[in-house]
From TrEMBL:
A GO MF term: ATP binding
Protein EC: 2.7.1.113
Superkingdom: Eukaryota
UniProt key word Transferase: yes
Keyword Transferase: yes
Organism listed in the record: Seriola lalandi dorsalis
UniProt subunit comment: Homodimer.
Residues of the signal peptide: none
Family note: Belongs to the DCK/DGK family.
High-level lineage: Eukaryota, Metazoa, Chordata, Craniata, Vertebrata
Protein known as: deoxyguanosine kinase
Active-site residues (renumbered): 135 (proton acceptor)
Amino acid sequence: MASKREKISDSCSRCLSSKASTQDGKARVRRVSIEGNIAVGKSTFARLLQSACPDWEVMAEPVSHWQNIEGGTSKGTGASPQTTVSNLLQMMYQDPLRWSYTFQTYSCMSRLRTQLQPPPARLLSSEGTPVQVYERSVYSDRYIFALNMFELGCINSTEWAVYQNWHSFLVEQFGHQVELEGIIYLKAPPKKCMERLENRGRAEEKGVELDYLDKLHVQHERWLVEKTTEIHFEKIKQIPVLQLDASVEFQSDPEVREQFITKVKTFFNTL
Ligand SMILES: Nc1ncnc2c1ncn2[C@@H]1O[C@H](COP(=O)(O)OP(=O)(O)OP(=O)(O)O)[C@@H](O)[C@H]1O
Ligand SMILES: Nc1nc(=O)c2ncn([C@H]3C[C@H](O)[C@@H](CO)O3)c2[nH]1
């Protein structure tokens, strides 16, 4: 009997679109980000996608980098130099006024690095619809988190002006390399995200309150549903968005998982 993974992969090859090639005969790799509130289930959903189709490459959000920033070596009193390690995620949650701007510079830089990684060879030689899937993006860094921190007063107007200036410069300089073809928006009520956040129990998030998740929810709705957020990049203004109801418990229900995968495949084939 075929395993679940084989089953999903079989159905994957059954609904391939014809190969869209570039001039050098390589497959055109689509780039899609998964967006959504904290603990809505992006990483969980990303793992589902990774196991569903070999043509999809999922790139995780680099949270562990934010939790372990190696500082310079500190010279003690004669003892061997020690490397200091700081947890910027924790610092940002503990003292957002002091650390939010620093956090956004680092998170955005790490997202940029992720989005600049070339697709693996297996995607370039794919006969199907190869897709690089990112957990969040340089766009949510600005239009969800940094904007929210500015509106909360944790980033002041000078910091916000500086952030926007270098963000626009970098995105324009890297141009096509950091564009996206689509966005998957995982949506759930903030209360559901709060439940999941508490169950997950990530130490740095102990002080996160429902009000913060409410505000992030509003930012996602403004950007991806109402389209009232001012966006500064033409392609991102018109980007196709697949909205999925992430409040359903797909982990325990194979049918729900299949439905999600089918929707995602159909979406990818339109990009
Ligand atoms: N559909 C789901 N049904 C039930 N529980 C879920 C579902 N998706 C995720 N979870 C659980 O919710 C918690 C948060 O999920 P996950 O870590 O995937 O969220 P995330 O959106 O990636 O979080 P973050 O915003 O911090 O990156 C985990 O404990 C996970 O097991
Ligand atoms: N302030 C802030 N800016 C960001 O760009 C950002 N991206 C993610 N996060 C927080 C949410 C989760 O706790 C945790 C993992 O997603 O990190 C962010 N926080």
